[in-house]
Amino acid sequence: MIDIRDRVRNAALHGKIVSAEEAAAIIKPGMNIGTSGFTPAGYPKAVPLALAERMKKENFQVNLWTGASVGKELDGAWAEANGIARRLPYQTNEAIRKQINNGKIAYTDLHLSHVAQMSRYGFLGGKVNVAIVEACAITEDGNIIPTTSLGNSPSFVKDADIVIVEVNTSQPMELEGMHDVYIPQDPPCRQPIPLTKPDDRIGTPYIPCGVDKITYIVPCDLPDAVRPLAAIDDDARAMSAHLIDFLNNEIKQGRMPKNLLPLQSGVGSVANAVVCGLVNSPYENLSVFTEVIQDGMFDLIDAGKLTFASGTSLTPSPEGLQRFYDNIGEYRKKIVLRPQEIANSPELARRLGIIAMNTAIEFDIFGHVNSTHIMGSKMMNGIGGSGDFARNGYLTFFFSNSIAKKGAISSIVPMCSHIDHTEHDVDVFITERGVADVRGLSPKERARVIIKHCAHPDYQPLLTDYLERAEKATGFVHTPHLMDEALSWHSRFIQTGTMKK
Amino acid sequence: MIDIRDRVRNAALHGKIVSAEEAAAIIKPGMNIGTSGFTPAGYPKAVPLALAERMKKENFQVNLWTGASVGKELDGAWAEANGIARRLPYQTNEAIRKQINNGKIAYTDLHLSHVAQMSRYGFLGGKVNVAIVEACAITEDGNIIPTTSLGNSPSFVKDADIVIVEVNTSQPMELEGMHDVYIPQDPPCRQPIPLTKPDDRIGTPYIPCGVDKITYIVPCDLPDAVRPLAAIDDDARAMSAHLIDFLNNEIKQGRMPKNLLPLQSGVGSVANAVVCGLVNSPYENLSVFTEVIQDGMFDLIDAGKLTFASGTSLTPSPEGLQRFYDNIGEYRKKIVLRPQEIANSPELARRLGIIAMNTAIEFDIFGHVNSTHIMGSKMMNGIGGSGDFARNGYLTFFFSNSIAKKGAISSIVPMCSHIDHTEHDVDVFITERGVADVRGLSPKERARVIIKHCAHPDYQPLLTDYLERAEKATGFVHTPHLMDEALSWHSRFIQTGTMKK
Ligand SMILES: CC(C)(COP(=O)(O)OP(=O)(O)OC[C@H]1O[C@@H](n2cnc3c(N)ncnc32)[C@H](O)[C@@H]1OP(=O)(O)O)[C@@H](O)C(=O)NCCC(=O)NCCS
Ligand SMILES: CC(C)(COP(=O)(O)OP(=O)(O)OC[C@H]1O[C@@H](n2cnc3c(N)ncnc32)[C@H](O)[C@@H]1OP(=O)(O)O)[C@@H](O)C(=O)NCCC(=O)NCCS
Q1: Low-confidence stretches of chain B (pLDDT beneath 70)
Q2: Where does the chain cross the membrane (chains A, B) (predicted)?
Q3: Listing from the earlier edge strand, what are the strands of the sheet with A62-65?
Q4: Would the pLDDT of A392 be above 80?
């Protein structure tokens, strides 16, 4: 067994060190398992793999609650063992996605800032029975030093009857001190979250737990299964350039400070590309208040442009992770990880006035956004934190390519096939073709701006045709729609493989 | 002219007292006019009526920004004079609604908590040029004592170049002291809103203005054109009873304090009925943190059940208003009015853990809510504060009758024709038939619970049929929808006058 005694700083706890199999044996079918992990970062690996073996043999299922998506050793292995009955609040794993979309897994897609409190309130189907949390180390007092993410771990540890800590020796000890753990009280006793700047520290550098509350400690040395980022393509570069043009004008008009406001940027390649684009921008002294810290943020730090980044998870590419570990002494001065309840807090997004930048699957001419469903039915990943930020930011952007599947799909449609963010929540749309600033506009005005600046030329005439016919048929009503045609583009794609006529 | 000199407490200001016509003469076409008023309460009347006369003769238009809906002397008179080019953020007036739905008025339907800050940020098409604010009195220092609502007046007064104060002698002086005006700073300097209980006072009892900033003062004695509330019918009584049953069980399960959490209740008859229902409930020491204070709240105060109510507007029926005026000495101890930026603040809704209760036009089997559009196209009123509260409350309810138009419409549909609140935001649905608790459920589970407990028996088989065929056609995908049928109920109603086959 890997020796982790130097990382378990209270010798009295050494007796609780067991194998992954022993720890996994305590888990019973039907339990609610709350784990650490947010994106493939900081999730437990050894105990989940051991439990997957039991799942295969004993044929039993649990409910899995995490911070957000987790790596293959947890989501992947459990799904492949048919071990998940319920899953929340977010996932990106191929095996799980398949079972969510064939009726095997009941999936609850939640705003990431809601999860910890809903779990504490008892709103998610009982309480957390077992918390499994990855740690760098356990302190003298039995408190937990987390690793590359914080997610919902503090609340899961607080609420669970059984706490299993996986001490992962692949995680460098320099992570210690990079966390700031604050758990709000619940209503009616909740106080203001005392944070007014991205670099404020308001909590403890560890997850409060205590010696007695720890059930088992398990050694592990499997690294985070981080995933490569797609190369930055011309479309992403164009979106990034449009964003910078737009922000330059906002500064000129006096609607934005010169060093911008704290940036939030979503998951995925476009989001990363947009952040990378800022490296060559004129802006200095940028700050970040976001969920995931991707490679682009390291570029900004290296370029001396980013003074501070606050997030809930480090989600770099494999090269990015190596780069982070190699230079952790410097990066740790400029990065803090918080529970997602704080990182994604609506209260803080609005107070700090963040610039919210997220990616959409599709949006419609009237300004509604679909972040989650393919053709109205198939779950992709989940809403994640996009709603937490989009709804509360100073300025809310959504990005998308104007087309998908080589042009067979227009990502700008008459009506979204699923809506995660409404017309009330979005300020600006950006595709590789341009920028639609819809602030203060009525639906019919929005439609014209979106079609003109964001839609692909192949689809512009079709969208305009729909809008004009709907206006005539309804007598220029507030939001002109033809109920029997609004979703016909999606129907056509399903039937013919293209949205084109 | 009505003598208002005793209400204008600085004699130096008496020289600024002019007629409504003189004040209205300063307004130019194309200006952004920000007025007081929220529901038909506390809006200016004399100057708008005078301006309406000019509009009729001179044929010019302005943009009207308010707190929410306002009375006929403003929305009605200006719309009838074709005097409104743009309107935001909410309305309920028949004349305006018509022009919004025939292309004459560009209407921007905003979350009510967003308006003041978006106006300060300069996001709504320039700044407020003229503020017209109803007042009880003007203090020695030139500060404004508001009347029956606060809305966005503090920000409009702060930003406008021209400030016109309408001193209304029909408003009793006892209103003085019932307001608490707090204007947050804008990012990056915003601080936590220092409120942790509904009865906390965090600001001034007046709108800060100052002698020099006041351009004109106009006397007025027209009362608020409050509107009757529909009688409480059996359906509303049934919804109220379902709510109380549900809350009783939450208390029993330990998920709710015995005196509940601060209540928010929406506009309209159902909302009022639900509050009235609490008079005969077992709960004591209730508190209210809401937008509009309707008759039901006076019932609760009289019954000794309500310790405190915080809102942004008094919106009683004509009898309710009389009752309030008659007993204002008592009611004023238990009611405070705040700017809507505070009353509807997401930060506070989440901190206080409010119980959010709003009414829907329709909702769908997967839990999305339409608050605004009839048959996907025609604007009814607007989203109002429903999103501010629904998204951030401790427990979020939506109410609706299961059917409308004598059964020709099912208010529970396969897919909403417009979405204002998403599946991520709603906990519980209530119709006269029962309660659907969808917390923690997947979409397919939600659908079964909603059909079973909320839908009308006439439509239950049709909804189940849709769901089952969609499940089969899509292989039990996450959110089973048939793109060519999802909106067919609305199409059918438009074509045949009924959703029934
Ligand atoms: C929306 C989201 C899926 C986009 O991710 P991405 O990596 O930039 O997207 P891609 O362009 O690679 O598209 C993903 C897939 O959707 C498909 N797609 C894109 N647009 C589509 C459309 N309009 N209709 C149907 N499919 C579409 C792509 O073809 C691709 O399919 P594939 O996996 O079969 O190749 C992702 O950002 C997400 O999950 N967002 C929701 C959560 C979120 O915003 N979190 C951030 C909060 S901090
Ligand atoms: C949704 C809302 C319109 C319901 O108001 P209400 O007074 O309870 O509603 P009613 O039952 O009287 O219905 C209003 C109209 O919609 C019609 N209607 C109701 N359900 C319908 C449906 N599913 N489809 C089409 N029309 C419907 C009614 O028939 C009625 O029509 P009419 O004016 O021609 O008679 C109102 O609550 C609202 O505007 N909400 C949005 C703002 C909000 O929630 N604010 C509160 C925040 S504090």
Answers
A1: none
A2: none
A3: A106-107, A84-88, A62-65, A32-35, A130-135, A162-168, A214-220
A4: yes
Q: Which atom of ligand 1 is nearest to the CA of A385?
A: 47
Task: Give A211-234 pLDDT, tens digit per residue.
Answer: 999 999 999 999 999 989 888 899
Predicted confidence at residue B229, as pLDDT, reads: 86
Burial class (CB in 10 A: 0-12, 13-18, 19+), B215: middle
Q: How much is the pLDDT for B424?
A: 98
Q: Which one of A188, A391, A419 has the shortest CB-CB distance to B353?
A: A188
Q: Do B106 and A441 touch (CB under 8 A)?
A: yes
Tell me how close the Cα of A108 comes to any Cα of chain B, in angstroms. 5
State the CB neighbour count (10 A cutoff) for residue B214.
23
Residue B281 one-letter amino acid: S
The CATH class of the B234-458 domain is alpha beta
Q: How confident is the model at residue A269 (pLDDT cuts 50, 70, 90)?
A: confident
Span of A264-278, A381-395, B26-40 with lowest mean pLDDT? A264-278
Mean pLDDT of A65-75: 98
Domain B5-220 identical in fold to domain B234-458:
yes
- Residue A171's nearest CA partner among A207, A224, A120 is A224
| Distance between CA atoms of residues A213 and A230, nearest Å | 42
Please tell me the predicted confidence (pLDDT) of residue B268: 77
Dihedrals φ, ψ of B446, to 5°? -55, -45
With a Cβ cut-off of 6 Å, ligand 1 is lined by A 266-270, 291, 358-362, 371, 374, 380-381, 383-386, 404-405, 409, 411
- Catalytic entry in A73, A166, A291, A432: A291
Give the CATH number of domain B5-220; options: 3.20.20.70, 3.40.1080.10, 3.30.70.920, 1.20.1250.20.
3.40.1080.10
pTM of the predicted model, to two decimals? Answer: 0.98
Q: Which of A78, A68, A10 is nearest to A214 (CA)?
A: A10
Question: Token pair for residue B170?
Answer: 């029909």
Among residues B73, B166, B291, B341, which one is catalytic?
A: B291
CA B133 – CA B103 distance, rounded (Å): 29
Whether residue A494 and residue B471 make contact (CB cut-off 8 A), yes or no, is no
Q: Hey, what amino acid is at B408?
A: A
Domain boundaries defined on chain A? 5-220, 234-458
Q: What residues in A contact B387, CB-CB < 8 Å? A: 422, 424
Known catalytic membership, residue B291: yes
d(CA A481, CA B377): 6
Q: What is the pLDDT of residue A230?
A: 85
